[in-house]
Structure formats: structure tokens, C-alpha cells
UniProtKB/TrEMBL annotation:
Origin species: Crotalaria pallida (Smooth rattlebox)
Name by which UniProt lists this protein: Eukaryotic translation initiation factor 3 subunit A
Keyword RNA-binding found: yes
Keyword RNA-binding belongs to the record: yes
PANTHER family assigned to the protein according to its UniProt record, in alphabetical order: EUKARYOTIC TRANSLATION INITIATION FACTOR 3 SUBUNIT A, EUKARYOTIC TRANSLATION INITIATION FACTOR 3, THETA SUBUNIT
Assembly: Component of the eukaryotic translation initiation factor 3 (eIF-3) complex.
Domain PCI per the UniProt entry, residue ranges: 321-518
Amino acid sequence: MSQFLKPENAFKRAEELINVGQKQDALQVLHDLITSKRYRAWQKPMEKIMFKYIELCVEMRKGRFAKDGLIQYRIICQQVNVSSLEEVIKYFMHLSTERAEKARAQAQELEEAALEEALDVDDLEADKRPEDLMLSYVSGEKGKDRSDRELVTPWFKFLWETYRTVLEILRNNSKLEALYAMTAHRAFQFCKQYKRTTEFRRLCEIIRNHLANLNKYRDQRDRPDLSAPESLQLYLDTRFEQLKIATELELWQEAFRSVEDIHGLMCLVKKTPKSSLLVVYYAKLTEIFWISSSHLYHAYAWFRLFLLQKSFNKNLSQKDLQLIASSVVLAALSVPPHDRTHGASHLELEHVKERNLRMANLISFNLENKPENREVLSRSSLLAELTSKGVMSYVTQEVKDIYHLLEHEFLPSDLALKVQPLLNKISKLGGKLSSASAVPEVQLSQYVPALEKLATLRLLQQVSNVYQTMKIETLSGMIPFFDFSVVEKISVDAVKQKFISMKVDHMKNVVIFCKLSLESDGLRDHLANFAEQLNRARQMIYPPERKPSKLGALLPSLTETVAKDHKRALARKSIIEKRKEEQERQLLEMEREEESKRLRLQKITEEAEQRRLATEYEQRKNQRILREIEEKQMEETQALLQEAEKRIKKKGGKKPLIEGDKISKQTLMELALTEQLRERQEMEKKLQKLAKTMDYLERAKREEAAPLIEASYQQRLVEEKILHEREQQQEVELSIQRHEGDLKEKERLIRMLGNKEIYQEKVVSQRQAEFNRLRREREERISRILQSRRQEREKMRKLKYYLKLEEDRLEKLRAEEEARKQEEAERKKKEEAERLARLADIAEKQRQREREIEEKERKRREELLGRTTESAFKPSEPLARPPESVSAAPAAAAAAPASGKYVPKFRRGLTEGAGAAPPPETDRWNSSSRPDGDRWRSGDDRRPAFGSGSRASSTWSSSRNR
């Protein structure tokens, strides 16, 4: 597209495109304008352009364009006018929310079920799958439901994309932290309102990554300072809102991760948040730990919540405090009394230690690493702390009684029977608390199952100390809470954790309580307890003699001394408390002063930076304006000079003198201005002369025409008055005549009024009946047509479905046939390759065998040729196979005497004369071309024998080749 010199021109062009309906082209024009680096200095018109650009993006649901434009606008406004960026982002979110709500309102006008179906989308960022499209066509989805889904879902997807875009743009902006927090809160409310669990998890992960990157890259220019109280409060509020929404959506894993985020944020800045936030924090922790069956940490969270409410909430009523204290005690009693890590592996123990450390840190913000201190979090230490902190004084009487029964009483026979009515009363306690409490509701009935299990374990423990065997019916009667199958499961878990020792013999229908060893809990202190009880009995029977105390005389003075020491200690304590308060006040004052100093320095630095940027911006702007003015003046001067030269040429004057065709800017301007001034003076003289002439002519013309115009005007007045009177008289006469005629016509027609009404009623009734008949026929015809079309569409849909199924089946058969053919071809190809490989192997072996044979023959031929004389005298050494270059006849003759076979005479002669001289090398080609062996050049009688041998060798070679 063409580049515009000014943003106003681009904006005007975009409005023209919008007016003719080309919104896509208008959006592209504005997008190119905003993303160009040339227009970053144009702030005032760019804000107006951004508002129009955002409107187009929202109307066309172009989230990517909106993100690109906002990123570029953030670069423009970050250091100069950040409030403009804030307004644009707020407008963007307002438009997106408004369009989504409008679509939702339109869908709500239809059925509510259709709206729920439209919003029933697993992931707003996922595209529509191909199988969903196929199912929608096959299943015959109704047009209204499809329109609801197409109307509502895209706008909610765009709204979710809007929240993601804004959070991404504002993630590292210290000047727009409040807007970032507001956007996060609105996104949380969006997920809560429409039950968007997938988007909520993704949103929590986005915010978590933003904070991680903020801590990772600390050298960023506009990075928010988490040590500032305002920034910390905003981030904490965002995390607490995230925790609330996670618990309301019942996303407990995400809620636990949110708790860890809050704890990590507190550890990062090392500051304790407000008590109101801590109350919400511990209230949500109680829900999370109860859902995860972490009863010990649930009880500790309730205890921390009770301490906070008691210390900081002065408006809390006594009833609310009593319910909270009762929840604390019952939560502590609900903790299993046995250690579940007994007998666990080393890996499991390490895992439990790490988990305990994480839970302890979450509960008390404790950063010390104490994995070895097993008494930090335990049931016994919690109950002891509850007693020491006076929590038992706030609980109800039923909770006190059940605590005393389960922890201090020894009633093996009727423990469960005494606990059961107390549990029935406890199950009815609870309800909503007052508005002063941060906890909305407390229900003690949730602890009843755990208390029933605890009562069962205590009963089994006490019975095992008294009885050795017991019938199953008796034990079942002592435990009214559960059937014996449930009691057996509970006892199996307790036996596994070494809490009790018992066996169930179903054949004898008895329960056996046995002691495993002398190291068990029951026998470990048995003798010591027995000795202690005997000692008490002896002292009761024979009380010891009381000797007179030497301290009797000192008791009065001792009482006064103790009282004085007590008063002194109280005074010292009050002084220490005052000193601590004074020291804390001084520390707070120092922190406040340091914070104010830091804020002042930061404000001064920011103001200096803004002034510097504004100065630089003004300097660049002034330089650009001066440069443009100079260029414009130069262009105007050149144009003026050219025009002056043209005019001089037309008039026949001389060309202005320019030294060597080189002229400076000032000289050029002076020449142009001089020429222009001269021409202007001449033109003014001409205009003055012409104006004077025209003035004289106009004055003379008006002086002559004035009396004529006045006379014509008076004559026109007289004529128009006469005409008006005549027309008025004619109109009166015509009106009187019309009125008389109308009266006569009325008298004539009044007689037919009754007949007209009768006829009118008759015609109207007939036409109404005809209309009703035609309407019924039309409705019947339309219903028949609709029914036939509906049946035809259903038939065609089924036919298409069956045809598709048949095509799929044929396609499947075709694919199977092709796969089978391909497999057969591959098998044949493999067999052919194997056959060729075997043939090649056989041929290679044959060639190897021939090479070995030729090598052996060559060696023997060399031996034979090298020892011809010796072989003649030693015929007893036969040749295994005649060489190719020597005849077979001498070999046979030499082998005959050794083997004892008959040898002809001519062979004998040849054999005997063979030792005269070594035979020359035989030419097989010459010997084969001469069939007669007597045609040698020498007369020696050995030649024929060698010739015949050559022929025999040649014959053998040819036969071997064949």
C-alpha cells in the first residue's frame, strides 16, 4: 500500500474505506500506519487512530492485529504518555466485554439450554476438529442450536484472547500495575462466571510465568519493584483472588499451587501481609487440606486461623469464637493417632520429610530447614499447644467432654456408647458466622466420621490391654458406629502401623489380642507402672510420718518475698514491653522515612527522566521543523526564480546575472523577492487604475437607474393590490356555491345510508368467510409441502449417510486389497532377490573353484617345464592332470611302466628318447592348425609326439570349456 506523509491522511483514508464497506482494507491501512516507525512521534493523532483501530479489530475479531497494534503503541507511549496507553487498553477490554455480553444477551433470548450448549466448549483456544464438523452434518444439528454456538462461542474466544493479550502487554510495566491487576481480576471473574476451568489453569500459569520472568530478568528498564508496598499489595491481591476462584471452582490442585505462589511471594519480599489477607489464606488452606485428607495440616491451619481471629478481630462475637475453637479441637482430634510412616521405605520417608517441610512452611511461613525435627508437626504437640494456649476454654461443653473421653479416660467397655450421644449433638452444631468473621460458615458435622474412627481405635486399644480374646459379636456390640467389616478394615490399618496388636479368627468367631514382643507399647512400661501403683497403695495404707519443716518459720517472709518478686517481674515485663513497643515504633518510623526517601528519589528520577525525554523530543521536533522550513523555502525560491526567468523571457528582458551559474540561498531568495516585489508593484498600479475606472462607471450607472427603479416599484404596488382584491372576491363566491351543492348532495344520499350498511355487512361477511376458507386451505397445503420436504430431507440425509458408509467400506476393502497386493509383490521381490543371491553365490563359488584349478595347473606346468630332464628318467612320477601346454601322450607313456600297464612301441621309443634334450615350448595354435605332426622344421622324432600331445590338450581344453 502507499505510505502516507501524515497520520491524519491515513485516518481519513480508513474512514472512506469503512464508509464503502471495505473494513478489512481500512484495518490494514491503520495497521501499517501504527506498526511503521515513522509515526512514533505523532502522539496526539495516534490516540484517535488507535481508538478507531481497536473498534475495527473488535468488530472483525482480529486479535492478532490488536496485539500488534497495542505493542507498537506501548513503545510510543511508554516513556512519554502512559495514560494514553491505559485508556486505549481499557477501551479495548470494554468493547470486547460489551460485544461478548451482547452476544450472550441475544442467546439468552432463546432457550437457556441452547446457551449452555454454546458455552460448553472444552478449550476456547482450540479450533474446531474435523470429526466435529462431520458429526454435525451427519447428526442433522438444528439450525438454531448451530446459530447459538456460532454466535456466542467466537465472542467468548475473542474476549479470552483479549485478556491474554492485555496481560502479555502489561506484564513488565511498572506504571500500569493497577491495570494489570484489574485485568487479572476480570479474567478470574470471567472464568468463575462461565465455569472455564481450562482457561483458569492457563491463566494461573501465565501469571506465574510473568512473576518468574520478573524475578529472572532483574535488569529490565520498566520492571515493577516488588519491594514497594503498593506493588506488593497488588500482586498479593491478585494471588488471593486467584486462590478464592480456584476454591470456588473446586480446582484444588490449582488452589494449592496458588497457596505456594503466595508463600513464595512472601518469602521473596520477606514481609508479612495484613491480618485480613492471612485470615483468608488460612481459611482456604483448611479447605485444601481437608479435601486432600491431610488432617494434621488441616488442624494446624485451623489453629493459626483461630489465633489470628482472636488477636486481630475485636468485633468477633463469643459464639463465633466458640465455633472456631471447637473446629480447631475437633480437627486436632480427627488426626489419626498412629504414625503412617511406620515401616515405610527410605524413599517414602524422604518424600514424607520433604512434604512435611513444604506443609510446615505454608502453614507458618517458616523458612528454616528442619526436616529432622519430627516434633514440629505432630498430633501430640498440637494437642499440648492447644491446652497451653487456652483454646479449651473457648470450646463448647460437648467438645470438652469428647476430648476428655477420647484422650484421658480408660473405658474399654462403654467408651463408644458414651461417645455416640456426644457425636449426635456435635453433628447439629455449626452454621453461618457473623459478618465480622472472615470465615463464612463452620460445620462441625464434617468431623463426625473421623471421630467415630478415632473412638473405634481407642476402644480397640483399651480392650487389647484388658482382654486377650473376645467374641466378634461382643466387640460388634461395643462399637455401634460401624459393621464389623468396617471395624476389621480399621484394625488392619492400625495393626499395620503397629498401633494395636490383634488377630481375627473367623473360624472360631473370636478376636485375639496378642502382644508381639516385650518391646511393644503394652509391655514396655508394664512393670514400672505396676511398681508405681503398689507404691501409691503402700503410702495410702501406711502414710509416712511428717517431720516438722524447717521452713515453717520462713513461710511468712517467703510469701512477701514472692509477692515482691512477682511485682518486680511484672514491672520489668511492662518496662520491656514498653521498650519493645518504642523500638518497634522507631523501626517503623525509620522504615517509613526510608520508604518516603526512596519514593522521593524515585519521583525525582522519574521527573528528571521525563524532562530529559521531553527536552530531547522538543529538540528533535524543532530540528525537524527547521529542516522542513528550509527545504520548503528553497523549493519556493527555486519556483519563484524559474517563474521570474519565464516572465523575463516573455517580456524580452535580460536574464538575471548569476556568477558562473552558482548562487547561494540568500542571493537566490533576494533575487526572487526583488523580482516578485517589482511585479507586485506593477500589478497593484494596474489594479488601482482599473478599480478607479470601474468605480466611476458603476456610480454613473446607478445614478441614472435610481428614479426609474422607484417609479416601476410604485406602479407594481398598485397593480398587485387590484389583483389581490379581485382574486379574493372570486374565492368567496366559489366557496358559497360549493357549500350549497354539498348540502343538496348530502340530502340526496342520506336516504341510501341504511341499504349501504346492510350491503356492506353482507359483502364483508362473505369475503371474511372466503378469506378464512382460503387461509385454511393454504395452511393445509403448506403443512403438506413442509411434511413432504421434511421426509425428503430425512430420506436424502439417510441416503447420504448410507452412501458414505458404503464408500468407507469399499475404500477399506480397496485399501486391504492394495495392501495385500503390495505385500505379495514385496514377497515375490524378496524371493527373487534371494534366488538371485543364491545364483550369484553359486557362480562365485564356481569361479573360485575354476581359479583354484587353474592355479594348480599353472604350478604343475611350471614344475613340469622346469624339470623336464628329470621327469624323462623318472617315469614313476605320474602327472595328476595333463597341463594345457603339454600333450597327454608323453604323460601316459611315462606313467605306464610305473603302473605296469601295456605301452605301445612307438610310445616306448618316445619315452626312451625323451632324455636327449628338453622339449621346446609348444604352440597350441600352430599345433591345432596342423593335423599332421610330421610337419615340423626339425627332423627330430620327438616333434610328432609333442604335436599329438598338443592336439590332445587342445581337445581337453575345449571339452572343459564346454
